[in-house]
Amino acid sequence: MKVAIMGAGLSGLACAIRLEQLGIYPDIFEKRGSIGDRFVNGEVLLTIFSRPVRDEISYLADQYQIYLHPTGHIGEFIIHSEHEQAKLSGHLGFSNIRGRHENSFENQLGRQVKSNIHYHSEHTYEELVRDYTHVIVATGDAEYASEMRNFEVDLTVTLKGATVEGDFSRYCVMCWLDDRYAPKGYGYLIPYSETEANLVIAFPDELHSTPDSGDEKWKLFYERVCSDLGQNFKITDHFEVNNYMIGQCNEPRIGNSLFTGNCLGTIMPLFGFGQFPAMLSGIYAAEDLCGLGSYIETTKEIRESYQNSMILRKWYEKMNNSQKDKLVKKMNGYWGEKLLTTQMDVLKIISRFLRWGGK
Ligand SMILES: Cc1cc2nc3c(=O)[nH]c(=O)nc-3n(C[C@H](O)[C@H](O)[C@H](O)COP(=O)(O)OP(=O)(O)OC[C@H]3O[C@@H](n4cnc5c(N)ncnc54)[C@H](O)[C@@H]3O)c2cc1C
What is the CATH number of the domain that holds 248? Predict the structure, then answer.
């Protein structure tokens, strides 16, 4: 068996580590000059989005000997709406860094890989399919899957963010739900350390309308966060991602090509969480090649979560600011904490209820 992995991101590297554990050394092809060679940004793993797994970091370590060190565990999560605020405490998840930072998740995974990584790769999928017995398509975008007519895009998103300097608690993550600067979307603050954080707005692109640079929205958001935290943040870096595709492939495996990570459809439409399912999909792809379970079967749960998340997104998109205020008010304290820390897969339950209610 001769395996090529296209893309040295979360799903591609997780796949390589699992393959190596099972005795196969793939060739990895990465188009960039090094792992994670892009803007630095903060991301989170929220346990509510990974049920039934309650702790993604220990799950990856215990089940698959994949070791990741997050920036911090999230002990407090503050949700702001236009007029309300909910403060939730408990073990709610982890924050981590992505991109060219030496401790980014992809760099941590990269240090656990022994196989050859070919950087600045210009190899096309067609060449890899010809030269290898199996190809893992882990490119983090749906380009190849789309070209092969194997991907349905449900929405595209603009993400506009900055690295800011200020005073932060690395154990506290915040989000803002307010249509004025993130229509149908959200804004968030994820600390990298006590002095640096990532400040981002993410909102879906409107179909058939002229693209919005988001500059005005970003300015409003920045002012709101400065005012809420009583600080004037210094911006040291910024990034923008346009047309970030959220969708699902039709077939997780076509012949001997397996689609992982965002190419499979691991980015959840509600709030864009995708790191954990991306890594799992890479692991499942490796196990399929080694006869440890059909990829179509093992990814079923991820694909179902995607559908549930899409239902929740549609429900969320219908909410105006005063409804968001009501929701956030209800979430403050006991019920919010129960929702975020319960063992149950609450998102699955709520989406089933919405699906049933919508009939
Ligand atoms: C700004 C932003 C914020 C996010 N925040 C969160 C969050 O807080 N929590 C969360 O869970 N998820 C979040 N996500 C989603 C998460 O980052 C992705 O779901 C995850 O990285 C997908 O992993 P992947 O393996 O599919 O792709 P990636 O990790 O992006 O890796 C793809 C790799 O393939 C390479 N590549 C691309 N094309 C080619 C090619 N033709 N040949 C070779 N190599 C190629 C790329 O250079 C890259 O290294 C966020 C995404 C963005 C953009």
Answer: 3.50.50.60
